[in-house]
Structure formats: C-alpha cells, structure tokens
C-alpha cells in the first residue's frame, strides 16, 4: 500500500503534537520516544522514519518557527527600519512563535546546538543554523553590507544569537524584558562589528 | 567654579543634537582624564557603550571621592583595609553597571545633589541626561505589548515611531488616543528598573561592613533615601499617582498645568499623559521674552514649587526639561517621578523648621537636634548650629526682601553655593535623609530662576499660599 503525501504529513503532525503535549506535561527528560509512539498510536519503528531522536522533534519545532518568522518578516508591511530593528523583528518573532514550548526547549537545545559537538552536515542543528543565517544574510545585504561575510562575522552573530536564545529560554523577568534588552544590546554589538570590519577595509 | 560657568552647565533641554552630544563627550573625556587618570576608550565598539560606561566611571570616581572622606580620620592600617574593600566594591559595582542607563541614572541622581558632589562632576552628569541611545520601534512595540497585551500601533489611533524627546531611562513619543486626545507616551528601556534596584542593593551590601565612623548612620540613611527615590522614579505607576495628586493642587486661575494621566494607557514602564505643546526654557529664552513675561513665568514656577511643598509633596527635580512655557502664558509642569511624599515625621520636621524660620529663631537648637541628630553635648554642635543659621539666612533672603526679589542676582546664588561648600568642608553632613532631595529641589529651582532672570515677589507668594493652606485646613 502506498502512503500518500497527505497521510505522511498528517502522521508527522500527530507526532509533533503528541510529543509537545508529553514534553509539556511530564518534562523533556521523562519522555521517551517509545512513549511518544505509543501515545500517537504508531509503531516505534514508524516514528524513527520521521524523527530519529527526541531532539529531532524539537529541532523541527524550532526550524518551523524560524521559517514562519522569516516569511512573516517579508509579508509584514515594514517601515524604513534600521538593520538592528529588522534583525530584532525577525528574531523576536521567531521567539514568540516558540513561546509555548519554552519550558522544554532548554534541555533539547543543549544537544541540538552544542557548541562543542562536531558539526555534521545534515544534523538538525546545522540545518537550522544554515537557514537562519541565510535569512540574516539577506537582511544584512539589503542594508548595504554586501557579502560574502567573513567567517568571524558569521560566528560572532551565531554566538550572540545562541546566547540570547539560551538566555530567553530561562528568562523569568516580567515579559522576558531582560531578553528584550539583551537582544537589543547584542544586535547593536553585531551591527557595530560590521561597521568595524568596513572601517578596517577602507583604512 | 563661578556662577556663569554654572549657568552654562545647566542641562541642555533639547533632544540632544549630534553636535551637543559631541561636545558633551569631549567634556567628559577631559574630566575623566582628570578624575580617573586613565585614557578613555575610543573606537566604534567602545563608542557603543560610551554613555553608560563614562557615566559609570564618573559616578564611581565620585563615589570613591565621597566615601573616602569618611575614613580620612581612621588609623593608617584601618584606612588601608577600607581602601581595599572600597576598591573591590567599586570594581564590582562597575561590572554591575554595564547596562545602559542604570548607572547614568545613579550618576545623575548624585550629580543633582549639590551638597555632595564636586561641581565639575555634577556638570558632566547633568549633560549626560538626554543621551541614552534611542530604542527602535520593534523594541518599543514589545515593551508596550508587555504592558497592555497589544503593540503600540494597535493600542493607539496614531503612534509616532520616532521619539520626540529623550527621557533619562527611555524616550517619549507623540501619539493620538482612539478617543482623539493628543498624548505624550513615555517608554522605559526594558529591564532597567530592576537593574538599578539590584545595583543599589549590592552596593549597600558591599559598603555596609565598612562602617565609616560616627557619621556612618547618617550616610546609610542618605543612601537608603536615594535608593528609595530611584526605585520610585523608575516606577511609572507611582509617577502616574504623583502626577494625579499634583494635578489636583492647581486651579485654572493659577495658570499652571499638570497634564492628565491616562491610566488605561499607563503601566510600570509606560506613562501616557496629555501632550503639552510648549517651549523648553532654552527655546523660550531664545524668543527674547520681556522682563514682565519672565517674571510671570518665574512667579508661576515659584508658586508651583511652594504649593507642592506646602502640600507635603515637594517637587524633587526642578530642572529645565520639566517645565514647558506654553504660548498662552501658562506654565506646563511635567515629570513627577521625583516627588517626595512626606510622612508624619517629615511633616513635623517641616513644621518645626518653618516655625524656626518665620516665628521663633530660638528653636534653632531644637532643629539641629532633630534634623541633624546632633545633641548640644556633641563637640560638633556649635559647627552645626552655625551651619543651620547660615542655611536659614540664605533660604530667607528672598522672603525677607520687600517687593519682588531678583533671582537673576548671581550673588544670591553664589552665597548658597558657599554655604554648601562650607558644609562639605566642615563635614557637618549629618542630617535627616529627607533633606537630600530637598536641597536638590531648592538649588534646582533657584538655578532655573537665575537662568530665567526672573523677579518674583516671594513674600507675597508665601503669604498667599500660606493663607490658602490655612483656609483649606
Ligand atoms: N506631557 C508632555 N507633553 C509634552 N512634552 C512632554 C510630555 N511629557 C514628556 N515630555 C517631553 O519629554 C521629556 C522627558 O520627559 P520626562 O521629563 O517626563 O522624562 P524623565 O525620564 O522623567 O526625565 P528626567 O528624569 O530625565 O527628567 C520632557 O523634557 C519633554 O520634552
């Protein structure tokens, strides 16, 4: 029997929904892939066809949120904003879409985005990184900083981004206002560093 | 420092232009080189941090200067140990102060205490006032959303994305309510309020064990007062309440307007009030106003100040940014973040000091005992008595003067500065914490009236306000 694309999408959606429910109700650590499969009413083997690990499920949530943030960014009517303001809009909108998952993102991120893990092309963390950096690169370019970006500039951005992300996950200040401030400062720093590179070039 | 320098040093009341900012930065650089004796960082990355960084350094250099005074009498070994503790405390504080605005606010508060701060430093801190870097609109939107669940563009009928003025911890935008009113929306940079509070608590915790001699209890009280007022200033809900109470004090015939607060559009980090379309002092002076016009505005400033004082809610921060000169001759009064609310103890001390000044000068000993906590047996008592007498005489100069008093008289202001420097020199610095902000309030008002060169019939204003007060009681 051939499984239609719709059926596939439907199963995938069911797994995501079941998994987030379980992560939310009983915590990330206490949930096993087996349990997810049983609750979703599928065989464990089938689950692995879709998501090889628990982390892959969360990575999918993150990737999806960031993708929608990117689409929303271009769909929205925007003012003549500064580069900082544009990047802020993109990132904060991604966070907002992930807000309901905040309580279990932290432990999952440790694996997905471990700075020490050997980056392997095709790992879920890598795909997210590549997609997000592409979005950022496009925005930076429209603000008059043509590529290609130096490895250092890219890594600086990614380090700041991950730092802010990790901070946001744990931020219990009212309205996550501390993350608002941290993101604002981090982006100023990043944009200033672009300027510095430029200055150095022209000297 | 002479008076004309002091006038020049009053804060600029326009939204700092690039040129102004550049000048101020230059000045800070000079002073810092002097104070901290180390080069000021330059370069794009450093420039980003420079405002909070520089004001932090100034505040620290000042704190060090101030605190060191307290242990200059200790034995050498003890002093060395205190110096070490102090250095550690300051270093730590410096690190805590990296967030934009927080230290600037602390520094600014210190700079506004002429009784404590060296003039040169005060001047610099004043200039830092309107220089916190602006927030872009997406950030504004989120701060507003945090308060009201809606972004600024949904909440208001119109919202100007560019700020029209800087506030010390944020910025002010023009907007129109859905009901049509034109308003000013003051928005605070996220997280600042909590930082200031934490920084101050940490600093007190670090300084507490130093126990700086017999004046320490008094210093501690002053510290606590500054902390209390700062945490009040950063809470816009409290400012809204003070604004409402101030608004009730004035009638149309006073020609003094306090803007209406819109509670549904105000919260801890956002304050929405009627927009007042007026000129700042500097712009007003640039129109070459007549002496009569200056006197009229000056009298309103004085009356507003006096009325709030009599209502036991003195206006703690009379600086140029907080007064608007309306085209129809009315005076607009804004920014009630720094208003004290006197409790029973402060009210009683105020009455006592008033009676000493206006009815019975033999109460002076009693005032010294109560206000300064210095008993007649204390060897410092005569010093304190002398200080109290000089302060009172200076305070009463305008009141004792028959007819309009000319606040444009630099000599009067200079005498006030002299009294203050004597206080610092003789180290008669024990006094009730309520006077920290009261001093700032008096000097602030007189500095403004000096700049306005206004002649005010203080005696008459006093008489009328007192009469009105007696009627209402
Ligand atoms: N209701 C208003 N109408 C017109 N202008 C206003 C109003 N409220 C604020 N402003 C403008 O914004 C500036 C800053 O506002 P405000 O003094 O309330 O801020 P603040 O942070 O309390 O300032 P600071 O503590 O630095 O005095 C004012 O100097 C004024 O130019």
Provide the gyration radius of chain A in Å: 19 Å
Q: Find the count of extended strands of chain A (DSSP E, 2+ residues).
A: 0
Give the SSE string of chain B. Answer: HHHHHHHHEEEEHHHEEHHEEHHHEHHEH
Strand content of chain B: 5-15%
Helix content of chain A: over 70%
- DSSP, total strands of chain B: 10
Would you mind describing this structure in some detail?
The complex is a heterodimer of chains A (about 200) and B (about 475). Chain A is an all-alpha fold and about 200 residues long. Chain A has two domains: about 1-50, Arc Repressor Mutant, subunit A (Orthogonal Bundle); about 55-200. Chain A is built from nine helices and no strands. Chain A has helices spanning about 5-25, 35-40, 45-50, 55-75, 85-100, 100-110, 125-140, 150-170, 175-200. The radius of gyration of chain A is 19 Å and the shape is globular. Mean pLDDT of chain A is about 85; it is low at about 200-203. With about 475 residues, chain B is α+β, with helices and mostly antiparallel strands. Chain B has three domains: about 5-125; about 135-165 and about 170-275, no CATH class; about 275-473, no CATH class. Chain B contains 19 helices and ten strands. Chain B has helices spanning about 5-10, 20-35, 45-70, 75-95, 100-110, 120-125, 135-150, 150-155, 190-205, 215-235, 235-250, 280-285, 290-310, 345-360, 365-370, 380-400, 410-425, 435-450, 460-470, and strands spanning about 160, 165, 170-175, 180-190, 255, 270-275, 325, 330-335, 405, 455. In chain B, strands 1, 2, 3, 4 and 6 form a five-stranded antiparallel beta sheet that branches. In chain B, β3 and β4 form a beta hairpin. In chain B, α3 (about 45-70) packs antiparallel against α4. The longest helix of chain B is centred in the N-terminal third of the chain and has 27 residues, at about 45-70. Mean pLDDT of chain B is about 75; it is low at about 1-55, about 90-105 and about 110-130. The chains are: A mainly alpha (about 200), B alpha+beta (about 475). Chains A and B meet through α5 and α9 of A and α3 and α7 of B. Bound molecules: adenosine-5'-triphosphate.
């Amino acid at each position: 029997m051939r499984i239609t694309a719709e059926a596939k999408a439907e199963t995938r959606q069911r797994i995501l929904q079941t998994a987030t429910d379980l992560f939310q109700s009983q915590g990330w650590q206490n949930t096993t892939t087996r349990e997810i499969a049983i609750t979703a009413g599928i065989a464990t083997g089938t689950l692995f066809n879709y998501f090889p690990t628990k982390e892959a499920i969360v990575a999918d949530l993150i990737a999806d949120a960031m993708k929608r943030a990117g689409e929303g960014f271009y769909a929205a009517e925007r003012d003549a904003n500064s580069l900082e303001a544009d990047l802020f809009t993109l990132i904060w909108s991604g966070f907002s879409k992930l807000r309901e998952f905040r309580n279990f993102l932290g432990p999952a991120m440790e694996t997905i985005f471990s700075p020490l893990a050997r980056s392997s092309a095709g790992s879920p963390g890598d795909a997210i990184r590549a997609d997000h950096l592409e979005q950022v690169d496009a925005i930076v370019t429209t603000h008059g900083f043509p590529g290609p970006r130096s490895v250092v500039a890219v890594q600086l951005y990614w380090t700041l981004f991950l730092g802010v992300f990790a901070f946001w996950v744990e931020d219990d200040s009212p309205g996550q206002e501390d993350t608002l401030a941290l993101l604002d400062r981090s982006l100023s720093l990043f944009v200033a560093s672009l300027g510095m590179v430029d200055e150095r070039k022209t000297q | 420092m002479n008076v004309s320098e002091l006038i020049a040093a009053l804060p600029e009341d326009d939204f700092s232009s690039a040129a102004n900012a550049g000048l101020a930065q230059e000045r800070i650089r000079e002073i810092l080189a002097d104070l901290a004796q180390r080069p000021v960082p330059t370069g794009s990355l450093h420039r980003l941090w420079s405002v909070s960084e520089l004001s932090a350094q100034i505040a620290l250099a000042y704190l060090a200067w101030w605190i060191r005074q307290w242990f200059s009498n200790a034995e050498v070994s003890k002093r060395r140990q205190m110096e070490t503790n102090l250095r550690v405390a300051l270093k730590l504080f410096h690190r805590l102060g990296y967030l934009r605005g927080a230290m600037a606010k602390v520094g600014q508060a210190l700079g506004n205490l002429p009784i404590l701060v060296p003039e040169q430093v005060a001047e610099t801190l004043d200039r830092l006032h309107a220089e916190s870097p602006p927030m872009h609109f997406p950030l504004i939107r989120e701060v507003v959303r945090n308060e009201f669940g809606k972004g600024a563009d949904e909440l208001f009928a119109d919202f100007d994305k560019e700020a029209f003025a800087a506030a010390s911890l944020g910025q002010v935008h023009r907007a129109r309510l859905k009901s049509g009113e034109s308003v000013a929306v003051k928005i605070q940079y996220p997280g600042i309020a909590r930082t200031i509070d934490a920084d101050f608590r940490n600093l007190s915790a670090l300084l507490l064990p130093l126990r700086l001699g017999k004046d320490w209890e008094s210093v501690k009280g002053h510290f606590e007062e500054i902390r209390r007022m700062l945490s009040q200033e950063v809470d816009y809900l409290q400012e809204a309440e003070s604004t409402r109470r101030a608004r009730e004090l004035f009638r149309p015939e006073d020609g003094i307007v306090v803007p209406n607060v819109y509670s549904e559009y105000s919260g801890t980090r956002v304050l929405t009030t009627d927009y007042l379309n007026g000129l700042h002092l500097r712009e007003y002076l640039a129109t070459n106003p007549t002496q009569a016009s200056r006197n009229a505005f000056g009298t309103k400033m004085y009356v507003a100040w006096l009325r709030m004082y009599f209502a036991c809610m003195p206006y703690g921060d009379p600086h140029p940014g907080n007064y608007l000169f309306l085209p129809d001759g009315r005076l607009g009064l804004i920014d009630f973040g720094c208003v004290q609310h006197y409790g029973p103890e402060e009210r009683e001390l105020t009455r006592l000091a008033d009676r000493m000044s206006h009815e019975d000068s033999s109460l002076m000993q009693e005032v010294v005992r109560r206000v300064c906590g210095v008993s007649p047996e204390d060897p410092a008592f005569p010093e304190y008595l002398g200080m109290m007498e000089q302060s009172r005489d200076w305070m009463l100069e305008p009141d004792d003067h028959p007819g309009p008093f000319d606040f444009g008289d630099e000599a009067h202001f200079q005498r006030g500065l002299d009294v203050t420097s004597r206080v610092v020199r003789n180290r008669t610095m024990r006094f009730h914490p309520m006077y920290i902000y009261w001093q700032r309030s008096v000097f602030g008002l007189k500095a403004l009236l000096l700049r306005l060169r206004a002649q005010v019939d203080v005696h008459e204003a006093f008489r009328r306000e007192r009469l009105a007060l007696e009627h209402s009681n």
